[in-house]
Amino acid sequence: MPTLVDSHCHLNFEPLGDEITQVLSRAKDHGVGYFLCVSVNLEDYPQVLALAQAHKNIFASVGVHPNEREGRDPEAEELVALAQDDAVVAIGETGLDYYRSEGDLGWQQERFRQHIRAAKTSNKPLIIHTRDAAQDTLRIMKQEKAHEASGVMHCFAEDWETARAALDLNFYISFSGIVTFKSAESLRDVARKVPADRMLVETDCPYLAPVPHRGKTNEPAFASYVAECLASVRGEPIENIIQNTTHNFFTLFQCAKQIV
Predict the structure, then answer these.
(1) pLDDT (tens digit per residue) in 56-97
(2) Is residue 139 part of a domain?
(3) Domain boundaries, position 153
(4) CATH of the domain at 124
(5) Stated pTM of the model
(6) I want to staple 147 with a disulfide (CB 3.0 to 4.6 A). Which of 76, 114, 169, 249 is the partner?
(7) Total count of domains within the chain
(8) Residue 67 counted as domain residue
(9) For 30, phi and psi rounded to 5 degrees?
């Protein structure tokens, strides 16, 4: 059976980073063999990069999350320079998050634009986070021609109209443990409609543990429950979900290399 990919995780976050050997071992036991460890700020980026450099099956991204306010706010040129490392396969996570932000959010939008420009220049895809900001997210993606870089709408929790607009912009849709939640029927309806060649699986760990582990610390092993949920709602064998999402990951993140 093909190996599942956790396309978005934060392995450097506590408590995962303190027990990385055990975390990776449990993931392997659940059929999860590749991991994209995602950067949320430049201050902790060296931790993300070190994990990817130490493990051939861990890949890294570089970027600053839309909610980060304390650290450095990079220009596109700095992101491009950092992305030249062979372990870095993506730019982000970036995007817009209006849920926890107030006031003039022009700084968030400008940061997002810088990341899109960096992705286009470095020829590495984007990891986009959007929350309560779908209209502005899509508007900026169109204005900055994000389709030229491609990428993924990570931890997708929006409606089908938003998903379809992102798909039209050459983006993939990634499902997290949210799709397993009892209250997420509308998201499961989106999961039924997303084309098989545009779908990814993630945990966003250590957050958003899926059913039946909701409320606990999430970890890459639990990507298997997301895949099982997708198989159920789409009426497909689990093998199809694993094969397709793994193929999609390596198609999108072309700098990521499978272990032979």
Answers:
(1) 999 999 999 999 989 999 999 999 999 999 999 999 999 999
(2) yes
(3) 4-252
(4) 3.20.20.140
(5) 0.97
(6) 169
(7) 1
(8) yes
(9) -100, 10
